[in-house]
User: What shape does this take?
Amino acid sequence: MYSKIIVAVDVAAIEKAERIVPRAVQLRREGGKILLVGVVEDLPGYVLAEVPASISLDARRDAEAKLDELRKRHGLDAELEVRQGAPARELLAAAAEHKADLIILASHRPDLSNYFLGATADRVVRHAQCSVLVDR
Assistant: This one.
């Protein structure tokens, strides 16, 4: 059982989070905490010039709303955090900052460039300082 669990939520694929949230609840130690983490990726500079300035703020608000909806749907007493940047880097940073002892994330079906795991899952598994559970 784990005391502090980071649940990585891809808000663009919320159906994957629907599968991993119950696992976090099962693995949480009594009195333990769950933190739902969504990451809004940075847009390349050449794209930023072509989109409204508020797009990043809108993406963060949308992510927060989806995380809150997920939390309510599962009746969780979980903390929410939306971070901005590269997903693997931000998930690892969140785990370190919150002293997590488990990261749970879903992986997509890989292609030849990342045959066994998705790119984000692969990086998290390789660099995490705590246990990682990958749902496929």
